[in-house]
């Protein structure tokens, strides 16, 4: 495909190769094949799979945590090559969610890595690759994971926590630490900031829109002009979320319903939900000059009371503070 020799692919492959190595053919080939797969559909569904690359396969196999993963050898003398995903079994049997091919620098297929307890990992864990954290901690040379997902995009996770996302033929960089550090500086504890970012990434991956405000003070909240739904029953449902923590709502999975039901969800720095489904009053001074869609205008207005985190339906995550856009990540 044309993107195989694209400048973006070369840059990403060279980054994944690392300074010590001279050959970036294998990383580039992996990127190209996973990109090609992301553009395919089979029986109406997107084709997905995943590759774990290691430059030190012997160390990888020796150090792999057998309580978390199974590594099944494949009786195959060939190598990972062009058109590897040309037949359905290659991506149906190894889906890039709970199973991944392990490939070394010589393109040898070491085996199929399977997660032993896939139900132990939530959508939030998977959005930030927590289900493969132990793999990145092996210190088996250069290691990265490349997957094709249900949105027809490619995600590459590196050992240093950096995510690279290929979408619409372009690469973008997503560093979870940027938002985590910003929230910590704002006053959140590390565990809560980390959970919120995994939540944002999960909603982005699902291609839902949402707007979350972390207020500076529980006593100063944005003025509401109404609520989403407009019925007494909707109002009653909205009250169910009040007083719960983000952690509790994530464990019950209701946080997805709370955030993606439209409107503004407000929490304090301890992660307690103060309100949900609010329509922000945009009639204040200076708000009429804000451009963009309704969610962007609401995010700017809400950010005057704290940190507003907006997820767009097509993936990007934007952070606003004091009326300004301070972080934007394409996903």
Tell me what you see in this structure:
With 331 residues, the protein is an alpha+beta fold. The protein has two domains: 2-168, YojJ-like (1, CATH 3.40.1700.10; 177-329, 3-Layer(aba) Sandwich (YojJ-like (1). The chain is 32% helix and 27% strand. It is built from twelve helices and 17 strands. The strands form three sheets. It has an eight-stranded mixed sheet. Strands 12-14-13-11-15-16-17 form a seven-stranded mixed sheet, with helices on both faces. Strands 1-2 form a two-stranded antiparallel ribbon. Helix 1 packs across helix 2 (25-38). Mean pLDDT is 90; it is low at 1-5. InterPro entries: DNA_integrity_DisA_N_sf. This is DAC domain-containing protein.
Count of the domains: 2
Strand and helix order:
HHEEEHEHEEHHEEEEHHEEHHHEEHEEE
Which structural class best describes the helix and strand composition? alpha+beta
Number of helical regions = 12
The shape, in one word, is elongated
CATH superfamily of the largest domain: DNA integrity scanning protein, DisA, N-terminal domain
Residue windows where pLDDT falls under 50 for at least 5 positions: 1-5
């Amino acid at each position: 495909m044309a993107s195989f020799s694209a400048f973006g692919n070369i840059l990403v492959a060279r980054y994944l190769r690392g300074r010590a190595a001279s050959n970036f053919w294998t990383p580039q080939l992996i990127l190209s094949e996973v990109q090609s797969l992301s553009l395919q559909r089979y029986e109406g569904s997107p084709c997905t799979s995943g590759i774990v690359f290691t430059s030190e396969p012997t160390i990888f196999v020796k150090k792999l945590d057998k309580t978390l993963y199974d590594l099944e050898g494949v009786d195959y003398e060939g190598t990972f090559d062009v058109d590897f995903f040309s037949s359905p079994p290659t991506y149906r049997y190894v889906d890039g969610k709970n199973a991944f091919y392990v490939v070394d620098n010589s393109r040898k297929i070491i085996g199929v890595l399977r997660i032993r307890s896939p139900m132990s990992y939530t959508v939030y864990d998977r959005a930030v690759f927590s289900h493969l954290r132990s793999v990145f901690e092996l210190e088996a040379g250069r290691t990265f994971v490349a997957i094709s997902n249900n949105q027809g995009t490619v995600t590459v996770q590196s050992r240093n926590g950096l995510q690279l996302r290929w979408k619409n033929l372009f690469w973008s960089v997503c560093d979870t630490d940027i938002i985590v550090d910003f929230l910590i500086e704002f006053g959140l504890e590390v565990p809560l900031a980390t959970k919120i970012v995994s939540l944002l990434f999960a909603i982005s991956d699902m291609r839902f829109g949402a707007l979350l405000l972390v207020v500076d003070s529980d006593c100063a909240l944005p003025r509401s002009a109404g609520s989403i739904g407009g019925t007494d029953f909707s109002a009653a449902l909205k009250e169910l979320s009040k007083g719960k923590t983000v952690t509790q709502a994530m464990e019950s999975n209701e946080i997805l319903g709370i955030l993606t039901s439209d409107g503004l969800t407000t929490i304090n720095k301890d992660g307690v939900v103060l309100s949900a489904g609010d329509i922000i009053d945009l009639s204040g001074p200076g708000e009429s000059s804000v451009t963009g869609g309704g969610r962007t205008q609401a995010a700017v207005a809400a950010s005057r009371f704290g940190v507003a985190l907006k997820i767009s339906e097509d993936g990007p995550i934007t952070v606003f503070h004091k009326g300004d856009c301070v972080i934007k990540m394409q996903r």
